[in-house]
Amino acid sequence: MAGKAPVGVLALQGDVREHLAVLTALGADARPVRRPEELAAVEGLVLPGGESSAIDKLARAFGLFHPIRAAIADGMPMYGTCAGLILLADRIDGAIAGQQTFGGLDARVARNVFGSQTASFETDLDVPALGDPPVHAIFIRAPAVVEWGPDAEPLASLPDGRVVAIEQGALLGTAFHPESTGETRFHQRFLAHVHARSGVDAPAS
Ligand code: GLN
């Protein structure tokens, strides 16, 4: 059997452990990434939920901002949840002063879009690309995709039409947190992108 392609979880802030646990349970060689050398050793990267402006600042402080941009430009598969989706977007609404994103996903993502009344909620989402059953999605001060370009494909929407899961090539983003509900299909999809690109066998699940 071929070796496993190592994958990373950006470990500057946010729900890093939950992502590492899901990836490890799926048989992946998953590691935290805090330094450029650690990024250089992985073949895919998860950007966790947390606070996108804090992750942006820390990525710059840790010398990871430009290496992550370069990895995206080079086609490294990435999966962003919530704050991670914001970090993948080329354009954001509701940024704090000076907030930047890694970009790569041709989309506009609005931060904290559900307002204080519904800052956190749960719902079942149909995700045709994943099939049955529906995804039980937890939204926590979540963003939503409000505009996207021709190469980006919405994977799930709320009944009001706001897009909450999207994919463009090897970039995958969800506004909600599958890592907190035992939902593994988005992480499997991310790992499939990694294995397709690296030519390494997918781990048995
Ligand atoms: N509101 C956060 C942000 O704008 C995202 C929340 C989350 O990741 N759960 O970064």
TrEMBL record:
SUPFAM superfamilies: Class I glutamine amidotransferase-like. Its EC number is 4.3.3.6, 3.5.1.2. Belongs to the glutaminase PdxT/SNO family. GO terms for biological process: L-glutamine catabolic process; pyridoxal phosphate biosynthetic process; pyridoxine metabolic process. One of its GO terms (molecular function) is glutaminase activity. One of its GO terms (cellular component) is cytosol. Pathway: Cofactor biosynthesis; pyridoxal 5'-phosphate biosynthesis. PANTHER family: PYRIDOXAL 5'-PHOSPHATE SYNTHASE SUBUNIT SNO (PTHR31559), PYRIDOXAL 5'-PHOSPHATE SYNTHASE SUBUNIT SNO1-RELATED (PTHR31559:SF0). CDD domains: GATase1_PB. InterPro entries: Class_I_gatase-like, PdxT/SNO, PdxT/SNO_CS. Catalyzes the hydrolysis of glutamine to glutamate and ammonia as part of the biosynthesis of pyridoxal 5'-phosphate. The resulting ammonia molecule is channeled to the active site of PdxS. It catalyses: L-glutamine + H2O = L-glutamate + NH4(+); aldehydo-D-ribose 5-phosphate + D-glyceraldehyde 3-phosphate + L-glutamine = pyridoxal 5'-phosphate + L-glutamate + phosphate + 3 H2O + H(+). L-glutamine binds at G50, E51, S52, R111, I140, R141. HAMAP family: PdxT (MF_01615). The active site is at C82 (nucleophile), H177 (charge relay system), E179 (charge relay system). This is Pyridoxal 5'-phosphate synthase subunit PdxT. It comes from the Bacteria. In the presence of PdxS, forms a dodecamer of heterodimers. Only shows activity in the heterodimer. Keywords: Glutamine amidotransferase, Hydrolase, Lyase, Pyridoxal phosphate. It holds the Pfam family SNO.
